[in-house]
C-alpha cells in the first residue's frame, strides 16, 4: 500500500493507535538515534517515542495480532486516548454543524467515528510496510496559537518522498494529535466533507448512532 490515498488509510489507522500515524511504519531499525537536542521534550520527540513503542508492540505481537484481530483492536483502543484528541478532532470534523452542539453530542460523534474507523482500518496496521524510512523535517507553530505542526517525510525505495504532517495542540500538561495529513490530504477535511450531507439532514446524535450501528461508515478512500 503505497498510493497517497492508501497511505492516508494507514495513517488514520495508526492515528487511532498512537496519534503518530504513518511514522509508525518507519521506525524499523532496532537502534534509533537519539532525538536532536532541539527536539527533546517537543511534540516531534513525542511522536517518535510513541511510534517506536507502537512499532515494537506490533512487531513482537504480529503473530498474535494476525491470529486474533480482537486482541489487535484492544491494543489500538488502549493506545488511542493517550495521544489522539478525539473530542477536539470531532468538533473539527463537524465544522459548522458542531456550532452550539453539546459536549455530549460531540463526544458521542467522536467515539462513534473512532470505533467505526477502528473496525474498518485497524487491521491495516498488521500489513504495514516496515521498510519505510521517516525524517522529521520541522516543527512549526500553527496560526492563532492553535498548536504546532510536525512535518515529516516518508521515504521508500524507488519512490518519491511522501510528506506526512501531524497537527497537535496542548491538552492539559501534554500534546495531543487532532489532525493528520498525507500529501495534503487531511483526516479532518476528508470526514468533514463526507459527513456534511448527513449532518445537514440529521442531528449529530442520530449520525453518531448510525455510525455506531454500522449503518454509516467512515470511508478514508482506497484509491
Q: Roughly what is the average pLDDT, rounded to an integer?
A: 76
Distance between the termini: 10 Å
- The geometry reads as globular
Oligomer: single chain
Share of β-strand residues: 15-25%
* CATH architectural category: Roll
Low-confidence stretches: 15-40
Secondary-structure topology with pairs:
Blueprint: H1 4-18, H2 43-60, H3 62-67, H4 69-83, H5 86-94, H6 103-121, E1 133-141, E2 148-155, E3 162-171, E4 174-182, E5 185-186, H7 187-201, H8 204-213
Antiparallel strand pairs: 1-2, 2-3, 3-4, 4-5
Helix pairs in contact: 1-4, 1-6, 5-6, 5-7, 6-8
Short overview:
The chain is an alpha+beta fold. The protein is built from 8 helices and 5 strands.
Amino acid at each position: 500500500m503505497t498510493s497517497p490515498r492508501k497511505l492516508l488509510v494507514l495513517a488514520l489507522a495508526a492515528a487511532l493507535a498512537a496519534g503518530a500515524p504513518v511514522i509508525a511504519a518507519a521506525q524499523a531499525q532496532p537502534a534509533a538515534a537519539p532525538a536532536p537536542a532541539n527536539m527533546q521534550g517537543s511534540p516531534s520527540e513525542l511522536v517518535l517515542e510513541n511510534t517506536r513503542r507502537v512499532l515494537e508492540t506490533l512487531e513482537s505481537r504480529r503473530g498474535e495480532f494476525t491470529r486474533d484481530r480482537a486482541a489487535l483492536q484492544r491494543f489500538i483502543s488502549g493506545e488511542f486516548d493517550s495521544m489522539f484528541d478525539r473530542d477536539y478532532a470531532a468538533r473539527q470534523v463537524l465544522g459548522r454543524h458542531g456550532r452550539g452542539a453539546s459536549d455530549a453530542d460531540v463526544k458521542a460523534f467522536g467515539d462513534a467515528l473512532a470505533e467505526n474507523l477502528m473496525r474498518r482500518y485497524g487491521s491495516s496496521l498488521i500489513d504495514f510496510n516496515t521498510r519505510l524510512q521517516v525524517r522529521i523535517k520541522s516543527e512549526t507553530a500553527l496560526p492563532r496559537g492553535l498548536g504546532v505542526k510536525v512535518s515529516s517525510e516518508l521515504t521508500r525505495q524507488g519512490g518519491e518522498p511522501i510528506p506526512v504532517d501531524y497537527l497537535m495542540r496542548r491538552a492539559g500538561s501534554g500534546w495531543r494529535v487532532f489532525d493528520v495529513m498525507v500529501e495534503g490530504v487531511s483526516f479532518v477535511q476528508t470526514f468533514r466533507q463526507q459527513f456534511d450531507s448527513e449532518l445537514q439532514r440529521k442531528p449529530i446524535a442520530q449520525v453518531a448512532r448510525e455510525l455506531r450501528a454500522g449503518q454509516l461508515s467512515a470511508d478514508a478512500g482506497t484509491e
